Amino acid sequence: MIHSFLMIGQSNMAGRGYRKEVPSIYDEHIKMQRNGLWQIMSEPINFDRPSAGVGLAASFAASWRLDNPKEEIGLIPCADGGTSLDDWAVGGALFENAVSQAKFAQRTSKIAGILWHQGENDCSPEKAEKYGDKFSIIIEGLRKELNIPEVPLVIGGLGSFLSEGIFGQYFASYPLINQALEEFAKTQANCYFVTAKGLTANADNIHFNALSQRVLGVRYYSAFRDLKHLLDPNHDEENVLATIYSRSYTKTEKIKLLEHEFAIGNIKPKDFLSELTILNQE
Amino acid sequence: MIHSFLMIGQSNMAGRGYRKEVPSIYDEHIKMQRNGLWQIMSEPINFDRPSAGVGLAASFAASWRLDNPKEEIGLIPCADGGTSLDDWAVGGALFENAVSQAKFAQRTSKIAGILWHQGENDCSPEKAEKYGDKFSIIIEGLRKELNIPEVPLVIGGLGSFLSEGIFGQYFASYPLINQALEEFAKTQANCYFVTAKGLTANADNIHFNALSQRVLGVRYYSAFRDLKHLLDPNHDEENVLATIYSRSYTKTEKIKLLEHEFAIGNIKPKDFLSELTILNQE
């Protein structure tokens, strides 16, 4: 049975890191949902916009796999860029879409956790004040609809780079959102807060860069595993990533990657067949 | 009210054409659904696999827009590569996902048509014989669930290149599928068949190349508009595409495209701001 995780929130959950900046993560036992079915995960997982790229879910899943080498994990991408808490209200399109996607996943998997990253679009003192109450209704609604009253919910902080870029004026209140998120996690059962301390952004100063997304995924997994808030970075983050990247591809993965190269026109039919023959003899 | 179209079938409906091989289509009044919401369409529309690319839906929509310059069109991508008719059976994940996505679309649009392309995965005499009966149950189920008993269903033929490539042996029976599809369309109300005559493929001899997908989209629209089977190519296909490509971008489109270039890191913050200022003064 696949252990599945629901991805919800806005662009930094969907992921805007540039793929060329980090080693890729590809593991036949890490799946993602498309059209209600599972397939091997590849990035972008959460294709909400043409600019979707590296998010935190891939390294979250790869960290999970280090501790669960004989199990499968599945990611259910439902995050949508630029969305506010109000956009996520119970009964709205985003909420209902997440419920419907999660229900498809429940046909063939057990939901093991909810991953949330959101708040950039609620950066004002007024909205920060209401964040906890609004978010609580959304999560309660989701838990009820999916009948998962106690699965861990991991939520992450906003980056301190937000107030520094060309759009910095819109994000001046980001510390209030971080406060609201942390407070929410500390007062709710089964909810864990993860710090974004030390993480950096793309040139837009809005989106975590690929490397920071990889680190953030490791942090999300650490909070999930320990059922504890992660208020300061762990010392072993880079080591965990190095271990993830050092994994060798299985035969199945090599064949799938070869098929992909052929599908996108990078290999000629003749070469594809001969390389496939070699792989099949491994 | 958006006029929406449901995209279902396998990889040649999702699209595997290479984007670099054709001019792009970008029109603020052509939308696509993501996470239950509409956004401006960009390719790949139907991101079922990492190899997803150009499909027929973009030029279908652009042809529709030539005749409906004051209206909006929305695409609902639900096709999934490598799937058989059995995979699309009523109650299965693909069918239910399509129903659920279409229902989200119905909140804010009126479904105006169904676009289907499938059959490569049913290329055997036995499966071809049962194609009509199986397909009829799927379409009937879909029409009932969505309460769209009479909207036009456009279905396209398979390419004659299928039997010629390195996987040609698996597709020897493709003419039987084309026969089944054509017969289905001729005996069902509100269903129109579109020929794939003359269309060509990527090097895999499985997937229509980008140019052929553009042409196929024009053909699908022609059948939809005239409510007639298209058994032979129209003579004006290339002209229609030339007209589509000659359209100038609106100010909104230029700004969105600039924002995308910034989001993917192709433009520095300073240059983004100065180009944005220029566009806003247009």
UniProtKB/TrEMBL annotation, chains A, B:
Record InterPro entries: Carb_Esterase_6 (IPR052940), SASA (IPR005181), SGNH_hydro_sf (IPR036514)
The UniProt record lists the keyword Hydrolase: yes
Gene Ontology MF terms: hydrolase activity, acting on ester bonds
Database matches in Pfam families: SASA (PF03629)
Sialate O-acetylesterase domain location: 3-224
UniProt keyword annotations, A-Z: Hydrolase
Protein name per the record: Domain of uncharacterized function (DUF303)
Species: Chryseobacterium jejuense
Record lineage: Bacteria, Pseudomonadati, Bacteroidota, Flavobacteriia, Flavobacteriales
